[in-house]
Design brief:
Largest sheet: 5 strands, mixed
CATH topology: Aminopeptidase
Helix content: 10-25%
Shape: globular
Strand content: 35-45%
CATH class: Alpha Beta
Strand order of the largest sheet: 4-5-6-7-8
CATH architecture: 3-Layer(aba) Sandwich
Distance between the termini: 5 Å
């Protein structure tokens, strides 16, 4: 069953006397959940930032502009101020720090719906 999530998703959910906090997310690049995926990333949320850890793509595929915009959009929906990720580029280790800000309409044509898969 698929439920659409609200525009601003909560990172804290209280059930009874317990508060559940979203701290880790596994991201998969795939058309349909449960199918083989072409990329995977483990994301750790800490305060207002997210660190994308273990970003791996199948068959040396690039982390594309569309992929980048999808991570940016996810962070914005989670209310984060920024994220960082690490990649090897031309054999060199590179860490990128990204500030999450409003994107203009030209770059948001890759509008990706956010949905909860249960």
């Amino acid at each position: 069953m698929v439920h659409k999530m609200s525009q601003e998703s909560a990172r804290y959910i209280q059930v009874g006397e317990w508060v559940f906090e979203v701290k880790t997310v596994r991201a998969l690049r795939v058309d349909e959940y449960g199918k083989p995926y072409s990329a995977i990333a483990n994301c750790n949320l800490n305060g207002d930032t997210m660190y994308v850890d273990g970003l791996l793509t199948k068959d040396e595929q690039e982390f594309s502009k569309e992929d980048f915009l999808t991570f940016h959009k996810f962070c914005k929906k989670m209310g984060l101020e920024g994220f960082s990720y690490h990649r090897y580029h031309n054999g060199e280790s590179v860490t990128k720090d990204v500030k999450v800000e409003t994107l203009d309409n030209k770059t948001t044509n890759t509008d990706v719906p956010m949905r909860l898969v249960t």
